[in-house]
Amino acid sequence: MLQIIVIIKSYDTYRWQVFNSSVIYLSLSLGGCDGTNRKKVAEDLGKLRTQYPEKFVSEDMVFSNIHRGDRIFISTACSEPQYLVRSLVDYVSKHPKAFFDTEIFHIWTLGVAPYTDEKFKTNFRHNSFFVGENTREAVNNGIADYTPIFLSEIPELLRKGFVEVDVALIQLSPPDKNGYMSLGISVDIIKAAIEQASLVIAQVNTNMPRIHGDTFLHIRDIDYIIHHDEPLLEYEPLVDDRIAMRIGKYVSKIVQDGDTIQVGYGSMPNAILSHLDQKKHLGIHTELFGDGIVHLIKKGVIDNTQKPINRGKSVATFCMGNKETYEFVHDNPMIEFRPIDYTNNPITIAQIDNITAINSALQMDLTGQASAESIGSTFYSGIGGQADFMRGSVLAKKGKTILTLKSTAKGDTISRIVPFLEEGAGVTLNRGDIHYVVTEYGIAYIHGKNIRERAMDLIAIAHPKFRPWLIKEAKSKGLIYKDQAFIPGKRGEYPEDLEIYRTTSRGMKVVMRPVRISDEPMVKDFFYSLSDSSIYKRFISVRKHIPHERLQEFVIIDNTREKVILVTNGNKEKEIVYGIGQYGIDERSHSAEVALVVLDEYQNHGIGTVMLEYLTTLAKKQGLLGFTAEVLSNNQPMMHLFKSMGFHIQTKISEGVYELNMTF
Fold first, then answer.
1. pLDDT at 238
2. What pLDDT was estimated at residue 483?
3. Cβ distance 127 to 146 under 8 Å?
4. Which residues of the chain have pLDDT under 70?
5. Shared-domain flag, residues 267 and 351
6. Burial of 147 (0-12, 13-18, 19+ CB in 10 A)
7. Are 597 and 621 within one domain?
8. How many H-runs (helices) and E-runs (strands) does the chain carry?
């Protein structure tokens, strides 16, 4: 028979403590313990005491129902019933032989974890599905356990009895007029745990929000009712704002109007979400509901109008945030929390067109493997839900996956992008899970690319300090060309500030940007798409073969001495080069030799004009005096283009080639 026991204790006699942690804060939410609310809850519970007198017992009687070897489940993260956990440990302190070898498990704890103390090693053994800050040391010292698993699979694990549940410690909102109490800010695996537990000890807390969705338990299913109010845990991650903002800016280029987004756990999500405030009609289907989502809902950015399922609703499974976020989700019909085997189920996720999964990693290698759970053999967090969302999004129509990571760790002394994952690291995401990778140095699209291409893409967005090392290691391990050229330092860095958007005279919208070290495959495709006539006009020779060695001259650029500008469609997934323009500086005359070429099918679309205009602007900014060029005498369109720029042109012809000297 299912027994649910809820502990009540007077708020006035409760002493609460603030935890010394960089991410945990205690505060009152929802005004839960003001006089009016407290009085009403007391009256409601008084009626229940009269109606169900057998449901009220002492704490000692409650905890005396726990036996040696029992398995105790505790609610997740900010929903953790802190008072119950402390009371359980206090009970064991008073009755050290009450029970032994009791396993405590949960998804993740942010708050109270005294059961990991060495002095309780004979009473408790801790096991979690996600390693938190307060239990990380215990797990890595071998006095606590970590169970790696996709979070979407845990409810079924419980139902099948692979992980047994004897006791559950949970936290609930006060009952409404119909006798229903809400699980509040964490649903995740709690309902599955309750269904399997023979004893459920629940803390009714006036501060717990009442949240819509599959969150409710009825009062008549509860055997013992006790009330204790305390502040909910708040989560405020610390983050390097400068780096987070740069990453957020790049992510905002990938997220499109009408997308449904998922954002993972970590220090990055709120910074990323803050850059989406100019988007329209975004939807939410996520594991974690946080402060940044509330900000976008209030601004009208998130309205869930384009979602094919749960339209009009922001769907999540648990919440970690501040007081204002808890107040926002309280009794809000726009918000629904569902069990984790619904929210995180890849089959559910795959039904959502245009879903964009945004997650983060601790380390990524040049082949496309990423670890979000360990640093080498040191367990740091867990698989979590990101693999569920990344794989579901890959299956969805027009789904996208974005992996974000800061390029370095430990004060820029360690690169997070490495040749191969460290020995012992858990491969959270494999080489097929990831579409986009974003660091503070740019965006790499690696989906469908070979190892050489993705290695070069990832090196291009690594920290500049580590790019020479990555090039060297990638060469030695056969990941890239053995003769891959590279220009270290500032001279070889990608000048992102030179990216611009233009519309040609024929109405084509194009992106003009400097060439990257990773652009060689795309530049090769461009040249082999040119007709023999266009190649002859560009190179003044019948060039049939443009090998890797020659291509490197176009993509390995010293930006202080030359410029190579690509005109593209700007599509990160399938970028197409329409034209290439370049100039190389002649220091003796303080001018530059210029050349450009456009794909045959896009000639006479105004691309050459915008390209030459931009090259001219860049040359003038460098203080150059003009351009020189060689043009075949029968290449009248190119001659017309140069004349249209308003240059002062001196011309001489030799063997059918015009030699142009053009001053600005």
1. 67
2. 94
3. yes
4. 1-36, 111-112, 238-240, 266
5. yes
6. middle
7. yes
8. 20, 36
Residue whose tokens read 């047994």: 164
In angstroms, how far apart are the furthest CA atoms of the chain? 109
Q: Residue 298: which H helix or E strand, with range?
A: helix 291-298
Residues 6+ apart with CB under 8 A from 370: 361, 363, 364, 403, 405, 427, 428, 429, 433, 434
Looking at residue 654, which CATH number applies to its domain? 3.40.630.30
CB 421 within 8 Å of CB 362: no
pLDDT in tens, 143-194: 889 999 999 999 999 999 999 999 999 999 998 888 889 999 999 999 999 9
The whole-angstrom separation of Cα 93 and Cα 295 is 44
558 in any annotated domain: yes
- Measured between its terminal Cα atoms, the distance across the chain in Å is 90
Distance CA 377, CA 424 (A): 4
Rounded distance, CA 426 to CA 375, Å? 8
Q: How many domains does the chain have?
A: 3
What pLDDT does 8 receive? 39
Are 230 and 261 within one domain? no
Q: State the pLDDT at residue 556.
A: 94
Q: Which residues are catalytic?
A: 287
Q: For residue 433, give every residue at least 6 positions away whose Cβ sits within 8 Å of its Cβ, in sequence order, or none.
A: 370, 387, 390, 391, 394, 401
Predicted local distance difference test score (pLDDT) of residue 53 = 79
